[in-house]
Amino acid sequence: MKAQNVCTDTRLDTPYLLFLLDTGAVTSPFDVCLALSAGFRAVIPYGGVTPLNVQRIVMDSMLLRGPEAVKHTCFFIGGVALCEAEEVLKVVKDSLFPSFEASIVIDPAGAFTTTAAAVAKIEEALASFRLHGLSSLETKQCAILGTGVVGRIAAVLLSRLGCDVTIASLDPKRDHGEKYAIGVAEFLDNRYGVVVKSVFAPTTKKRLEVMKSAQVIFCAAARGVRIIEKDLLKRLKPSKIIADINATPPLGIECVRLEDDMREIMPGILGIGALTIDKLKNKVAKRMLEEARVNAKGVYNYDSALMLARKILRKKIRPNDALASATPKQTLCRP
Ligand SMILES: NC(=O)c1ccc[n+]([C@@H]2O[C@H](COP(=O)([O-])OP(=O)(O)OC[C@H]3O[C@@H](n4cnc5c(N)ncnc54)[C@H](OP(=O)(O)O)[C@@H]3O)[C@@H](O)[C@H]2O)c1
User: How big is the chain by its Cα radius of gyration, in Å?
Assistant: First the structure.
């Protein structure tokens, strides 16, 4: 760490504060612990946050403290619901104005950082898979198995990276699955401007159809739900990357182990397991909060998380670098 880049924040009236805005009834202890580990002096959690009540929280958190202290303020939008979190984000952004700017992080259920970590790992796997004619995500066919927040944000990121994406709804108990799948594609188009194909794939036969032409398969099904059995994997042709994000047994894909990191699970098929993605996700989530704390403005979302995940994988950010070791009292300032 270079001495000239370090300043000491000893002003007790301007501590680094993080206001945790959770759209769920109860705030997540995971988010609280994460924010403390990223150097915030205090984390103030609010549950049941909505677009209707968030403006008051934002305004009241800033007015007494004044513009200088507001620079040490971050709003973290959590919860589990994607649309609610994004609606809250809009109101928080609109509530800030010049001289009263603060950083905003949005990561409902950790899904943005998780998805970004998965996409960065898949990119890395493709690059190391060059001999099989893969090498980059552009123009690759991607099958995303799962339509929750992780599946939807994966569809957004992978489409924007040039992939031909098919997203699959999976739950055999779902009524009107075809109609629901069409709705998912419409949602992604209307809200994020990405065009994807969508299918209802509640059976092995349907899932095989989705997977056989894909070079990249991303399993984002609910925790503890097995989606792909070994027999199905055996019927796939080589030159594929297959990643699973479900860390709760039974895992989403038989044969892909939690700690797999580009292990060849079948001839020509590389597996990436949930813990491998999760380890990267945790680094990304902490670093994102550290940067939000220090930079004092801007919105940190899945795009920021993807950039950070790539930098961490390319070792452009190392675990022991200055930001990561900074404490509230000894914090890096921008030069
Ligand atoms: N490591 C982390 O920090 C982290 C963060 C967030 C999520 N995750 C993991 O990521 C995965 C996806 O999470 P999420 O919140 O996006 O989605 P989710 O709501 O947990 O799961 C949604 C998907 O699971 C399918 N599904 C639900 N029950 C099923 C059943 N009985 N049989 C077959 N399919 C079923 C749904 O089918 P339909 O499409 O028909 O609805 C949907 O596609 C989970 O495993 C979660 O634990 C990890």
Answer: 21
